[in-house]
């Protein structure tokens, strides 16, 4: 029976499938196999592979294929340029994108709406909104290339990030006047911009005007405004808006509930927060790590660490795994209520449960131990942190420095200062001043004066410079 060799069409179909699935290594092997079978890849095959690499963010490999394509005498198409431009812009490599855009024009290619929209998005992403607006958007219109919603949205987003909300409004009106239909991204971008700028009243007015503009706010719009209202402390307005979400038939998501819980927790309304949490679970909306962290933090802020501990236990019961942020919140709450022994126990539990403590975890517990005069335990914990290859920052060092000095362990404190320097963590004003004050309190004035001089040489000023130098 005669063996049937794959033809160009077969290779092309399989290559497209590999690239669509992100199997670029298999795609490239197939590309090379074409050559082995005596089929030279054409522009279409190159474009498929270039686009595959570009969409995966592997812009250098995509660019290398483009250069190879040109070197073998194949002419890139508008599709080739748009794929590469999109990759460069997503990686914010605007210098390379603009050079390619120039090359494209020099070779006689007329940029289309995709080309312009891609470059406009890239420029706005890198903060070059004026350039995007003046150089490209206007040039695009002048050349008779109709803009699209993507181009307008990119510009509106850039203007909102620049806090040029008035110009964003004008573009919104321009869109409507030219027959382009603003979408949910358009409206939510302006709403988000207003909220980010703290113009919550204006954001509410804009939100209320959406239906008259032919757009019904979606759950993303509700979430953005809810969060802004709570941050402004406008709890009643936020709750009214939440009821409106339910009345309009929208299903609140985790982001919605988290915004409400955060607002209630900040106001220390933990009873209401607990009720809202129960409603969330009952509605079938699954809490995430942020949800639990918000509730834990609220209980800790209200000094209700037992309730916070119950939340942690509840997480374990339903199979939710606490992360390091969750543990750190409870560790901090326990230490701030002087339950340092419980914090120390929780720290051990955290390690046993496979959650690696970070520098914040250690700093929180170290601070609690030092403030309750358990400096020996603090030193043991600090040494354990070093053994686990965690690098203390200046805050961690200063916590232990303060504890050692208050406990009268000045020699250990001096050694710690040397350890800071050797570890590459430059001692700051607090470290020097803590040790110097400790030395003076013990009457070790000569050593204190030497440290004062060292501080002066390093450009630090000391609270004790007015004290007379002693021989």
Automatic annotation (TrEMBL):
Keywords: Repeat
Residue stretches of each PPR repeat: 7-41, 42-76, 77-111, 112-147, 148-182, 183-217, 218-252, 253-287, 288-322, 323-357, 358-392, 393-427, 428-462
Lineage top rank: taxon: Eukaryota
Any Pfam family the entry gives: PPR_1
InterPro entries registered for this protein in UniProt: PPR_rpt (IPR002885), TPR-like_helical_dom_sf (IPR011990)
Presence of the UniProt keyword Repeat in the record: yes
Gene3D superfamilies named in the record: Tetratricopeptide repeat domain
Record-linked NCBIfam families: PPR (TIGR00756)
Sequence similarity: Belongs to the PPR family. P subfamily.
Protein name: Pentacotripeptide-repeat region of PRORP domain-containing protein
């Amino acid at each position: 029976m005669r063996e049937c060799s794959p033809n160009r069409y077969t290779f092309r179909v399989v290559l497209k499938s590999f690239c669509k699935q992100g199997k670029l290594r298999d795609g490239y092997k197939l590309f090379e196999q074409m050559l082995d079978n005596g089929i030279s890849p054409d522009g279409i095959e190159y474009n498929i592979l270039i686009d595959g690499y570009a969409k995966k963010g592997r812009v250098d490999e995509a660019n290398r294929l483009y250069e190879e394509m040109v070197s073998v005498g194949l002419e890139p198409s508008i599709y080739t340029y748009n794929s590469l431009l999109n990759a460069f812009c997503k990686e914010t490599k605007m210098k390379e994108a603009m050079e390619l855009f120039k090359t494209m024009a020099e070779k006689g290619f007329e940029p289309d709406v995709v080309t312009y929209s891609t470059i406009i998005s890239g420029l706005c992403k890198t903060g070059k909104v004026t350039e995007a607006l003046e150089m490209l958007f206007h040039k695009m219109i002048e050349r008779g290339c109709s803009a699209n919603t993507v181009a307008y949205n990119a510009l509106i987003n850039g203007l909102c990030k620049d806090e040029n909300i008035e110009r964003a409004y004008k573009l919104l009106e321009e869109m409507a006047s030219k027959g382009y239909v603003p979408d949910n991204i358009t409206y939510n971008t302006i709403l988000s911009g207003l909220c980010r700028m703290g113009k919550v009243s204006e954001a509410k007015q804009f939100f209320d005007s959406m239906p008259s503009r032919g757009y019904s706010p979606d759950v993303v719009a509700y979430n953005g405004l809810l969060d802004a209202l709570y941050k402004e402390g406008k709890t009643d307005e936020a709750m009214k808006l939440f009821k409106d979400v339910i009345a309009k038939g929208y299903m609140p998501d985790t982001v919605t509930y988290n915004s409400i819980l955060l607002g209630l927790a900040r106001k220390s309304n933990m009873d209401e927060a607990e009720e809202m949490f129960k409603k969330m679970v009952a509605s079938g909306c699954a809490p995430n790590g942020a949800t639990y962290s918000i509730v834990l933090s609220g209980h800790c802020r209200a000094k209700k660490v037992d309730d916070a501990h119950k939340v942690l236990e509840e997480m374990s019961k339903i199979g939710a795994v606490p992360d390091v942020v969750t543990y750190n919140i409870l560790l901090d709450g326990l230490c701030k209520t002087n339950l340092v022994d419980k914090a120390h126990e929780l720290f051990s539990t955290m390690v046993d449960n496979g959650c690696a403590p970070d520098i914040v975890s250690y700093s929180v517990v170290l601070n609690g131990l030092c403030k309750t005069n358990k400096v020996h335990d603090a030193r043991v914990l600090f040494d354990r942190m070093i053994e686990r290859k965690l690098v203390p920052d200046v805050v961690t060092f200063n916590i232990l420095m303060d504890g050692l000095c208050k406990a009268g362990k000045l020699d250990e404190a001096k050694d710690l200062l040397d350890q800071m320097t050797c570890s590459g963590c430059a001692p700051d004003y607090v470290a020097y001043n803590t040790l110097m004050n400790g030395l003076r309190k013990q009457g070790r004035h000569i050593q204190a004066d030497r440290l004062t001089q060292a501080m002066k040489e390093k450009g630090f000023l000391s609270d004790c410079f007015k004290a007379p130098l002693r021989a």
